[in-house]
Amino acid sequence: MVPTDSKKTAPTSRYRGLFVGIDTYASDRIPELRCAERDARALHALFADTLGDGATLLRGAAATKAGIEAELEALEKTKPDDVVVLAFSGHGSETHDLITYDTDPARIPATAIALDDLLERFKVIPAKRLICFLDCCFSGGLGAKVLHGEHLPRSLKSFDTVLDQLSGNGRVIITASAADEPAWESSKTGHGFFTHYLLEALQGAKEVRKAGKVAVLRLLDYVTERVTADAAHLGKSQRPTVRGTLDGELTWPLFKPGTNYAREFPNRAVGPVEAAIMSLVGRGIREEILWAWGEAVTEFNDLQLEAINDYGVLEGKHVLVSAPTSSGKTMVGELAALSGVERGERALFLLPTKALVNDKHQGFERKYASAGIRTIRATGDYFDEIPELLRGQYEICLLTYEKCAALALAYPQLLEQVGTIVIDEVQMLTDPGRGAGLEFLMTLIRVRRRHGADPQVVALSAVIGETNGLEQWLNGRLLRRNERPVPLDEGVLGAGGEFH
Fold first, then answer.
1. Which long-range contacts (CB under 8 A, 24 or more apart) does 324-327 make?
2. Which helix (H) or strand (E) holds 254?
3. What CATH number has the domain bearing residue 83?
4. pLDDT digits (tens, 9 = 90+) for 212-237
5. How many CB atoms lie within 10 A of CB 76?
6. How far apart are CA 181 and CA 156, in angstroms?
């Protein structure tokens, strides 16, 4: 399959590309990265599975200056109707160079690829449409370091002039960060922030779909928004920039991982979950748990399937679910919590009242005790299992909002020991009496992210109007459903029991 122009009825172009990723360098004076080669491998495989084998992958020791330049020269043989995609993931320099595997830190201008040189090569590529993804940054200098265990900086110093020249009509350049910012990578996702959301968007994030395809301009907006929010939640600043324009609207088919992606990432190569609950077999959740769910319901509904397949609730993604009563929201929370538990993590379920905690505790005990999942509770009553909670002797803990806030303040390690937090009835934020306390608790969870505690947050709400950016504040996405699967019948019950 090939890119198409929305103004035309048939494919008009071929796909050609070059994907470069470098983690370690010939010089031990250049800091190592952890995810740059994974970035290049993932993008190359996903493009190959969807658009065909039209690109080259250079990684590690193969990504020398000469090797990259040779591939750029080969792109000079493209045709005007072709679409060319270039992606570079790795380090750069404050002198505006892309750092290759064999770059000598003492002789960067002579041994790296200057963006000025890249500009000259772009000029002689005949393809009318060229998209360049630079998951690197132009700030901080080659030796910059950030003391954060999970996230590492990719150091470059940005400048606008050359990038503006690189871009133009038919030439779009997307950088992972703005002028004075580093670009980050995360061991949690295994990718740079920028590439992670680029991969997510290409595979059809709801926000970028148009008539069953990926709208490239929408894709760029989505990646910019998500990266900016992700960095902000860690107390950092990273704002991708887009330069250049496309004549007409470029669309791609929805990208789907296939044989190439499966070869590179066998653990990720799974298809969408189907309606039958037992289709989760092999997804990391034990069959006895699936059978326990199946006692009440045998199939997932559309809301739950969308949460699994499109919103990554089983992969630790943050999400705000807004849907009517009886729509299956609670099951979305349980899916997230149990998926984390099966990965060896703990989960907190937060509810507004003691009665709800106690009712949910009975239900969880009945469903999950036989599978060895320990469920405890804390509401402020005499039967609270606080010692077990503080010692981590549980898989799921059910708490009221107020009790969780008090414990999290007194024992900061509480939020560091959990992998999932489900907040039920989050529309209580608007309640005059309870809203401030819930907002304080959610703020506390958000702030703790900057200190290394970053549990998945799944917020469940009844149907609400404007969210005022709540999902972005949670660093998640909004999954909204307005239809009620179980209809409500209104009427009058007479004294004799008749219903009108």
1. 324/462, 324/463, 324/481, 324/482, 324/483, 324/484, 325/462, 325/484, 326/484, 326/485, 326/486, 327/301, 327/303, 327/481, 327/483, 327/484, 327/485
2. none
3. 3.40.50.1460
4. 888 887 888 899 999 998 888 878 88
5. 11
6. 9
Encode pLDDT of 374-419 as tens digits: 999 999 888 889 999 998 999 999 999 999 999 999 998 888 889 9
Residues 235 and 289 in one domain: no
The verdict on 239 and 317 lying in the same domain is no
By the 8 A CB rule, do 327 and 484 touch?
A: yes
* Domain identity same for 243 and 363: no
Residue 15 shares a structural domain with residue 155 = yes
Tokens of 437: 């306390």
- What number of other Cβ atoms are within 10 A of residue 473's Cβ? 16
Domains held by the chain: number: 2
Domain enclosing residue 343, as ranges? 277-480
Angle formed by the axes of helices 302-309 and 329-342, to 10°? 40
11 vs 252: CA distance, rounded Å: 10
